[in-house]
Amino acid sequence: MQIEFKATKRDAQGTGASRRLRRAGHVPGIIYGGAGDALPVTMDHNELYHLLRKEAFHASVLSIDVDGSKESVVLRDTQWHPFKQQVLHIDFQRVAADQKMHLKVPLHFVGDDVSPAVKLGGCMISHTINEIDVQCLPKDLPEFITVDLSALEAGQSVHVSQITLPAGVELVAHGEGDPVVATALLVKGAAAEGEGEGEAA
Is the distance from CB of 93 to CB of 74 less than 8 angstroms? Predict the structure, then answer.
């Protein structure tokens, strides 16, 4: 289900105008890209703050209603206050249905607890990457990508190339190599403790 929210066109610009907006509980932002011009907008801070706490808000095509006119966008940048829980500025980029887009998508790990690495090997699974860069058409964008760790054995790792991507989604590679997304680390003392318990029984 697409996330929809409202914004209002912002006429007054500049540092002073932005400061006044923030004092009144609003966040200045901008919508750019695509066929349209850059559009300065303002949004309700509390509504935006709650939306930003949803994982899907960061990795979905969103519908923004600006004074009754809807646009499809993705979140591109959020500026936070250095020490307050306050959003200072937000950037959205327009997306077109027929153009591939580039976005970071979160990884959801499943099967850790039933993997041989954990059940038999006394390992702890470390997630080294929690999101990956993908490219796809807006209609194919997944909210998240599942990484199945149920077959992971002690000492093994899962690499980016082993992740199963949904149809229409391509990986955007950065530099050389095949980064590790999760690895099974042996917990020190786990094997020895296991042996001790066996004898006591």
Answer: yes
Neighbours of 135 (CB within 10 A): 15
CB atoms within 10 A of CB 65: 13
Name the pLDDT band for 189 (thresholds 50, 70, 90). Answer: low
For 137-147, what is each residue's pLDDT tens digit? Answer: 999 999 999 99
Q: Locate tokens 């990884």: which residue?
A: 107
Q: Say how far apart CA 153 and CA 95 lie, in whole Å.
A: 41
pTM: 0.80
Query: Contact, 88 vs 52, CB < 8 A?
Result: no
- The DSSP H or E segment spanning 188 is none
59 forms bridges with which residues in the sheet? none
148 phi, psi to nearest 5 deg: -90, 120
Among 46, 33, 147, which Cα is nearest to 93's?
33
CA 138 to chain centre: 15
pLDDT tens digit sequence for 8-30: 998 877 778 888 898 999 999 99
